[in-house]
Amino acid sequence: MLPICLSVCTRKIVGYAFSDRIDTQLTLDALDTAIRREQPRPGLIFHSDGGVQYASHDYRNRLEALGIRQSMSNKGDPYDNAVAENFFSCLKAELLHLRRFASRVQTQDDIFEYIEAFYNHLRPHSALGWLVPERFACRFEPAG
After folding, report:
1. Most buried of 32, 65, 83, 115, CB within 10 angstroms?
2. CB 65 within 8 A of CB 87
3. What angle do CA 80, 25, 55 make, to 5 degrees?
4. What pLDDT is attached to residue 50?
5. In this structure, what DSSP letter does residue 73 have?
6. CA distances (Å), origin 52, targets 12, 23, 58, 83, 112
C-alpha cells in the first residue's frame, strides 16, 4: 500500500510510506514525512478519501495537534480527490504497467525513484504551466 501526501498547489509528492497493509500507522508515517519535509503552518487543509485510516481517532488527533484542518471526500466520489487519483494514474501508466517487479523491495525502490527523481523533479504538469513540481514550488519560497 502507498498512501501519499501531495501538495495541490505544487503537485509535488511531499510524503508517502510503504507497507503490505493499509492502516492508520501507515498513513501517519506518510503524514509525518510530509510534515518533516514541508513544515506547514497551522491552517493547512488536508484532504483525503474517506478511508477508515484517515477517519481514525489517532489520525484526526494528529492533524488537530498540528493545526491542520481535515477535509474528506464523499464516499464513492473519486472527483473529490482528483489530484491524488491523477498521480496514481500516472504512476501506473509511467511505471507500474511497464515492467514486472521481482520483489516488493524492488517495487518500492522503483516507486521511490519515480517520485523522488522523476515525478517531483522532471515531469512537467499542465496545471503548473508545464513546469515540474520542484521548480514550481520554488516560486513560494521566501527570497533570501
Report:
1. 115
2. no
3. 40
4. 84
5. P
6. 25, 8, 11, 20, 25
Note the pLDDT of residue 12: 96
How far apart CA 36 and CA 102 sit, in angstroms, is 31
Return averaged pLDDT per consecutive 10 residues of the chain, 144 residues in all: 92 95 93 95 90 93 95 75 90 96 96 97 95 92 67
pTM: 0.89
**Beta strand 69-72 pairing with 45-48:** parallel
- Domains detected in the chain: 4-140 (3.30.420.10)
Q: In the 3-class helix/strand/coil scheme, how is 106-143 assigned residue by residue?
A: HHHHHHHHHHHHHHCCCCCEHHHCCECHHHHHHHHCCC
CA distance 19 to 26: 7
Phi/psi at 46 (nearest 5 deg)?
A: -105, 115
CB atoms inside a 10 Å sphere around CB 21: 7
CB 59 within 8 A of CB 27: yes
